[in-house]
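Encode chain A's predicted structure.
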Amino acid sequence: MPDPTVEQHFSGRADHVRRSYDTIVKASSALGPVGQDPKKTSIHLNRRVAFAGVETRKDALILTLKSDRAIRHRRVRKTEQTSAKRWYFEVRLTAPEEVDDEIRKWIQASYELAQ
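Encoded structure for chain A:
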C-alpha cells in the first residue's frame, strides 16, 4: 500500500477544511521550518519532532497541540496529560478564520516545545 499523501486527507472534505489546514501550515511556517508528514489517519506537522497533529473530518479539522501545562479553555475539546510536564489538547476548527491569535499563540508554544 502506498504511503498516504496530504492531498488524500482532503478527498471528500469541504473546501474550507483544506483552507483551514493551509492557514495552520502558514501560521506554523512563520515560526520556522515545518515538515508535513501524512500518516494513515492524520497529518503531523514537524519541527525536529511533531508539534501538531491534524485530523480531517467532512466539515472540520481536529488540531492537536502539545503543551507544558494543562490548557483549560472553552475551545479545548479534550486534554490529555502524557507525562509530568507534557499535555496534548484538541481544538475543533470549522473555518480558516478560527485560526486566530489565540490558536497562533498555542501553535507557537507547541512549536517551541518541539526542539
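Residues 7-113 form a domain with the Yope Regulator; Chain: A, fold (CATH 3.30.1460).
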